[in-house]
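Re: Re: token formats

Sure, here are both.
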Amino acid sequence: MKNKPAEVVAKEKSPAKAEGRPVFIEHSGKDAIGGMLALKLKENLHQSSLFSIADKGKKSVRIRVVTRSEFSDRPAVGSLYTIIWTFAENDNVLAYYLSDTIGIVDNSSLELEAEKLTAMTDSVVDQYKFLFE
């Protein structure tokens, strides 16, 4: 009795992890609390499966974080911030304005503000998702 040769079955390729929408974050400001806000926002976006951190030269939503100390005499009290969302195909073209917001942040509200800005970024990116098609 002959043994049948083993059947060769091609393994299915596992689906590639879907990349999130590309975002690029830049911060300007010399205040510590504003710097921590920008860093926490970047960390939140990096950890989310909805976003990927992009290079400045790539097609992406650009998030400009501008911060200043709320009181120049007491920089550790809090920071004022503005966030401006734009979209650009690359570095050589003019970016399209998408949205903006302003706010105040201090050490006690840092995590909450970063979460709020992450959710707002998701909303802006979802509203303008056709730009990635």
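Second one below.
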Amino acid sequence: MTVPTQRPHSDEAPGFGPYGIDHLLSDARGELDRVDPRTAAELQRNGALLIDIRPQSNRLTEGEIPGALTVERIVLEWRLDPSSPHRLDGLRVDQPVILVCNEGYASSLAAAQARELGLGRATDLIGGFRAWRAAGLPVIEGGHAAVG
């Protein structure tokens, strides 16, 4: 049996895996209909679920989007899996779900996974929370407890 060896890391190597993060991010975004902050706000008014996956320290410092659910990234897939006993209450597979991180990178990866779990209308916010705030959209004091 031959055991594959890991390539040595160098400045010239694109990454240790077969893809690298830029490739993973590009693949994830290729499956999404990403939305800008104003579109996200309109979708939220029309019933879309905004889910903030930022760490509590960011939410405390920068604030939160009114009406957004906070779900820690570490449990996100269990909360978004429609077949999981730990899914969010009221989660529907046909409901638009918009994931929000700081700047729109982690949320792209999370939204792609949400689609793989069966949430076909999952996407993310271009530019993340910081773009929302820069667009002058409502922000409230942060630090609310995440969904358990």
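Residues 1-10 have pLDDT under 50 and may be disordered. Residues 52 and 70 are 5 Å apart (CA to CA).
- S.
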